[in-house]
């Protein structure tokens, strides 16, 4: 019987050998931890749809950011739930709004922690859409972009280290870059949600952020899950308009898009491991269907292998703990 001369198993026989030839690294330095900050209420309120994740007050956000920072997580991503909403989402650019206050408080307490502010109007509008609605119920792209630019300046002036527009309006990266530059904020990076799909995996987030549309859906401005070439076009436009980092959202169903955008642009790429991806694994682990630690680390390693330089994930604290052990 002939035996193979090449035996790939030779380099799999021990943990040390596997470590020496490992192609993809997952470390805490790759993680961003998202947080939901509320304008008022208890320091912490558990979010039932996302086990292990809380709504936090501003004081709670400072505390939670400190925990993440102590674990070695380099950055947090802030989502705000305002005290009140209106048709335009004016709470988004309020200099005393929930995100602005939280950013100042976190930066004062943890100056070395990177604070990224999510920039969208959906958490602030009474109708739940990501921009101003026209009388026919369609989001007015250009009017919305003007308000997003105003919000970006307010967030950056509050101390945000980077601003992350997630609205998917056309031309918003260029408008935000111009507005920031005009206000002396040219050093503030833009982390653009370049390929944000109209995904079924946002369900838990929409409950947590109180941002579900009151009517219709977001398919008119978020991307069709069937399209990849369109994502490349979106990413390249954002690069031309001045984006510094590109986000693909969700992550696991779009690993091919992560790889293609990375290869096509050469820019740093962040993948958002979204609420539905998080809650699925949590639910399966709670039922005993899989090993949570092994499944999460495998999933995030797969996202890194696809080409993501950064992973935005609600698993960040758990992963940081596991990697340190």
TrEMBL record:
Pathway: Porphyrin-containing compound metabolism; protoporphyrin-IX biosynthesis; coproporphyrinogen-III from 5-aminolevulinate: step 1/4. Zn(2+) binds at residues 120, 122, 130. Keywords: Heme biosynthesis, Lyase, Magnesium, Metal-binding, Porphyrin biosynthesis, Zinc. Transmembrane segments: none annotated. It is an enzyme of class 4 (lyase). The keyword Zinc applies. InterPro entries: ALAD, ALAD_AS, Aldolase_TIM. It comes from the Bacteria. One of its GO terms (cellular component) is cytosol. 5-aminolevulinate 2 binds at residues 275, 314. Mg(2+) binds at residue 234. GO terms for biological process: heme biosynthetic process. The keyword Metal-binding applies. One of its GO terms (molecular function) is porphobilinogen synthase activity. It catalyses: 2 5-aminolevulinate = porphobilinogen + 2 H2O + H(+). It holds the Pfam family ALAD. The active site is at 196 (schiff-base intermediate with substrate), 249 (schiff-base intermediate with substrate). Belongs to the ALAD family. Homooctamer. Catalyzes an early step in the biosynthesis of tetrapyrroles. Binds two molecules of 5-aminolevulinate per subunit, each at a distinct site, and catalyzes their condensation to form porphobilinogen. This is Delta-aminolevulinic acid dehydratase.
């Amino acid at each position: 019987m002939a035996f193979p001369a090449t035996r790939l198993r030779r380099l799999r026989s021990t943990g040390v050998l596997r470590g020496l030839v490992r192609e993809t690294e997952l470390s805490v330095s790759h993680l961003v931890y998202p947080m939901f900050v509320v304008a008022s209420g208890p320091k912490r309120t558990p979010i039932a749809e996302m086990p292990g994740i809380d709504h936090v007050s501003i004081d709670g956000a400072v505390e939670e950011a400190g925990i993440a920072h102590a674990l070695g997580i380099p950055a947090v991503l802030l989502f705000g739930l305002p005290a009140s909403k209106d048709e335009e989402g004016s709470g988004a650019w309020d200099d005393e709004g929930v995100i602005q206050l939280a950013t100042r408080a976190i930066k004062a307490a943890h100056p070395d922690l990177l604070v990224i502010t999510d920039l969208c109007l959906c958490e602030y509008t009474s109708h739940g859409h990501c921009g101003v609605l026209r009388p026919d119920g369609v989001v007015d792209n250009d009017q919305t972009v003007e308000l997003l630019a105003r919000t970006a300046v307010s967030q950056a002036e509050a101390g945000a280290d980077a601003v992350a527009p997630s609205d998917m309006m056309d031309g918003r990266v260029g408008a935000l870059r111009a507005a920031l530059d005009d206000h002396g904020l040219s050093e503030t990076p833009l982390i653009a949600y370049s390929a944000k799909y109209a995904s079924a995996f946002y369900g838990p987030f929409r409950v947590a952020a109180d941002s579900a549309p009151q009517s219709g859906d977001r398919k008119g401005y978020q991307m069709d899950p069937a399209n990849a070439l369109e994502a490349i076009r979106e990413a390249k436009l954002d690069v031309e308009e001045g984006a510094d980092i590109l986000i693909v959202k969700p992550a696991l169903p779009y690993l091919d898009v992560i790889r293609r955008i990375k290869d096509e642009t050469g820019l740093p790429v962040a993948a958002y491991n979204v609420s539905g991806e998080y809650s699925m694994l949590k639910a399966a682990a709670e039922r005993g269907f899989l090993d949570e630690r092994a499944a999460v680390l495998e999933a995030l390693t797969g996202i890194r292998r696809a080409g993501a330089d950064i992973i935005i994930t609600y698993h960040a604290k758990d992963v940081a703990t596991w990697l340190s052990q």
